[in-house]
Amino acid sequence: MTFTLSPRLIALSLKGIALLSLIGLSGCSSMGIEPWVKPYERQNLADPIMRLNRHPSASMHVAHVLEGRESARGAEGTGGGGCGCN
Amino acid sequence: MVVTNLLNNSVKLFAAICLAFTTLMAQAAVLDPDRADMLYHSYEGGGMTIDGPSVMLRKKASESVAITAYYYMDSISSASVDVISTASPYTEKRHEGQIGVEYLYDKTLMSLNLRQSNEDDYLAQSFSINVSQDTFGDLTNLNLGLSYGDNEIKRNGDDIFEEQSEQYRIRAGINQILTRNLTASLNVEAIADSGYLNNPYRTVRYVDSSIPSGVGYQAEVYPETRNSFAAKLSASYFLPYRAALRCFFTTAILTTVGKSPPAMLK
């Protein structure tokens, strides 16, 4: 199967991101939704073990290896580029 | 041209959203704590050995400013497919350095990161800017980022050879607290490369009866544009006894488009 990424698709994605961002910025409260997890209920969420990127060095290494070996790149939330494979 | 227009629009969009972020007033967030990381990585397989150290230091200069320094080294000793077929084994070192600054203003976290990766035949320099904002009673975190990279490609044993390539990245993400034990995030990123994207050492072998050996070699011909779009959905769930269950799903689409000289393969 062949995927093509047209500029139109990228433009649509960017517009979608902009729309979502603006909704987020205006706040869901404008739609009658209030934050449902209170600050005093977040002790579990605040625990470092819940962080999605607990070990940034290891995450950057894995992203580098995936990009170098599989051309899988982006959306990892870490820096990248320059695969060192030449 | 289309990609350039698209990137111009992306930069305008990014600037507008950054401006919107800074107009929001909220209670202050906090920076991540100081940390020092050391990592050693090693890989062996397919005739290749790659290993090296990595160090990362992060220090808060004040309650609103933090500085990060990062060093990573790849030491490569290789006999890859290309090397086995057309060349002799080689050893090479890649040094990567990064320095970053984070600035926290109320609930807006802005960061700037500079990066350089240096090999004897490849120099990559890039910068990236990221902005993230807590909103909706701190249940939602939105983040946006933009990167630009410039690469200088050389070929060992050939002093004349010098090529360039560029890379743009734009990314966005949302992190949402769903329950008192569950958080989820969605990240998307679009990457556009342009310029010399070949491996300068890789050649194609073909049958040629006009040469006494009967076999000729020529450089591969690649398109000069490569785009990719990636998305990652991840979730983290707090378990009893201070454990966490994490899962993620990533998908990436990679396309090579743009002008490509006609294939010269015989």
UniProtKB/TrEMBL annotation, chain A:
<protein>
    <submittedName>
        <fullName>DUF4266 domain-containing protein</fullName>
    </submittedName>
</protein>
<dbReference type="InterPro" id="IPR025362">
    <property type="entry name" value="DUF4266"/>
</dbReference>
<dbReference type="Pfam" id="PF14086">
    <property type="entry name" value="DUF4266"/>
</dbReference>
<feature type="domain" description="DUF4266">
    <location>
        <begin position="37"/>
        <end position="86"/>
    </location>
</feature>
Automatic annotation (TrEMBL), chain B:
<dbReference type="InterPro" id="IPR021953">
    <property type="entry name" value="DUF3570"/>
</dbReference>
<dbReference type="Pfam" id="PF12094">
    <property type="entry name" value="DUF3570"/>
</dbReference>
<protein>
    <submittedName>
        <fullName>DUF3570 domain-containing protein</fullName>
    </submittedName>
</protein>
<feature type="signal peptide">
    <location>
        <begin position="1"/>
        <end position="28"/>
    </location>
</feature>
<keyword id="KW-0732">Signal</keyword>
